[in-house]
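Standup notes
- DV: blocked on the single-chain target, sequence here:
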Amino acid sequence: MTELSGAIIVVFCLYVLLMLAIGWATSRYQKSASHYFLGDRSLKAWVTAVSSTASSESAWAVLGTVGLAYKDGLAALWFLPGCLLGYALNWFFLAERLRKHSLDTGAITLPDYFEFHFNDKTRVLRMLSVGIIFFSMMAYVAAQFTGIGKTFDAIFGIPHTVSIPVGGAIIIVYTMMGGFLAVAWTDFVQGLIMVAGLVVLAVVGFVHLGGFSGVAEQVNAASPETLQWMGGKPTAVFFGSMIGLLGIGLGYPGQPQVLNRYMAAKNKKVIETGVWIALGWGFLVYGSAILLGICGNALYPTLDDPEHLFPRAATDLLPTGLTAVVLTGVMAAIMSTVSALIIVATSSVAHDVYSKMINPNLTHEQIVRISRYTVLALGIGAMLISLMETRVIFWFVLLAWSALGSSFGPVILFSLYWKGVTREGAIAGMVTGFVTTVVWYHSGMKDVLYEMIPAFTLATLAVYVVSKLTAHKASATVTTNPERSE
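- DV (later): unblocked, structure below
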């Protein structure tokens, strides 16, 4: 264990130095709000595709999905098509339209997009979307910091009170330095490490158990319900779970940390190429995570915390050097999302509120400086939240995922494809999606059906119905967009 600890420390230090180097290199380009929050719209296909997917997955892929498959077995397979359908929805139907629209209007954040698109002089849409983003991002980031704590606890036995501040400090430093461009490039590197680690460990575990026949025999002996398609669940519970896992894909159109990658894409060709890179990345990540979780039932039949499976398997099955690299993949998964979330939350405070509403006469240098202070404050705040209580990463992330997806997803899609949507309809959709998510989650109904399904459905209805009722105001509240159709 001493040898492994030394190897991990060396690899992790090299990894941290690489992240900080990217942050320093990109810090030289932070000359305006557009540079700091959108990388001056310069991202190419591989960076756009891998960074957008890595920023949306994180600890729930490497730790959470592996743990879900360990617990639910083959029933967790529905998570794979749910996520890939979400990728496809974003890339085929949303990415290019949003990129072009944001370029035409000069929007550099999602609240910018809503305000410009609906010509909202009251600033209600900006303030409402900022509030939803800030609340959801803080919860989301706190869950990622919890992932850091679980990883260090599983590998070294280091308490989360130590590991969370250390990991958080590293992320905050490179995000402060390089802004969005640093986040995009570090996410790209972290996404490659993440997929490599999951694929290697899943294949090694599969081979270790003897391939298909060995896995089937040993997993069935350790936990017979794992290889049952319904996971031993009653029919009603299984179908509720299946619909919920498929419904996770509905959240992708409403994730600001993903949407800003499309807005930052250099041109249409980037989107056309990036879709296939993103789908391939997602298939490898989630397919490997589910396979590893199923194999884990034979490898560790009495594991107390399913979300410890990945680091435990890496420690036991891989050579020391490779173990160090693979375990660094866990940190890469978490850090890629944390930095992406922090930069979005920062843009909401520094750009959308302070620069746009409080002091619009700031110089570029002042905007960047305020943004960096905001990164520091938000990062520390999220760390403090995560230190208060240890949560189950998968479900806590899904709450924030649903709040963002159901609040923004329907509004984004309607705004790009239906010219009848009104400002009032957008407000109704955001409020309905967010409130339904919170109420459904805290009522306990999430155990029956994932809150994304009812929240997204009701938000969609709210956008449509309220837009119809306020259609007489459409000409005054909706900006003309020649790409939209009836």
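- Follow-up: DSSP finds 20 helices and no strands in the chain.
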